[in-house]
Amino acid sequence: MGVLIFFAFLSFVLTQRVVELAIARRNARQMTAMGAVEAGQDHYKYLVALHICFFASLMAEVFWLERKPPQWWMAPAAAFILAQGLRYWCMTSLGPFWNTRIIVLPGAKAVRRGPYRFLRHPNYLAVVAELLCIPLLFGAWVTAAILSVANLYLLSVRIRVEEAALDEAHSSSSTLTRSKRL
């Protein structure tokens, strides 16, 4: 029974990721058509590799090391559910601006609704929580530790790149606004 639950849960999460990638592609096409530009292409492949390694490591640890859910499995399950809520709140708040890539529309104002009223990068908080909680839910503490540390490093790179891209888009917006006034 435990194997079925693990595969059902893993299938659910992987299906979510495939749907989210399709949404991201649609949003990217829409934003690009409006003049948006992509930043951070150099590190994106490492984020993709990290997420692939995450799922491979999770499966390997659960099956080869025969990990079992801990007695306190409800704590990571609750945190996972909260992270899901946060992630979908982020996605709906950003609308067409949500993406797995850094795609910035020059002249667009920063989104300040939903969780973005409280945090600068709430979507990344959801990702951090998921990459920690999913393995802990099944007792895969090695995956939780190693991939969470790698994820934090990559997110530190990504956030710097994203902030620079947003600053550049904002400064080009200010330049456009100033030129229109002259």
TrEMBL record:
Superkingdom of the organism of origin: Bacteria
GO biological process: methylation
Matching Pfam families: ICMT
Cellular component GO terms held in the UniProt record: membrane
Alphabetized InterPro entries for the sequence: ICMT_MeTrfase, Metal_cation-efflux_comp
Transmembrane regions listed in the UniProt entry: 46-65, 124-150
Keywords: Membrane, Methyltransferase, Transferase, Transmembrane, Transmembrane helix
Major subcellular site: membrane
Subcellular location, record wording: Membrane
Residues annotated as signal peptide: none
Entry's Gene Ontology molecular function annotations: protein C-terminal S-isoprenylcysteine carboxyl O-methyltransferase activity
Record protein name field: Isoprenylcysteine carboxyl methyltransferase
Organism for this UniProt entry: Heliomicrobium gestii
Taxon lineage: Bacteria, Bacillati, Bacillota, Clostridia, Eubacteriales
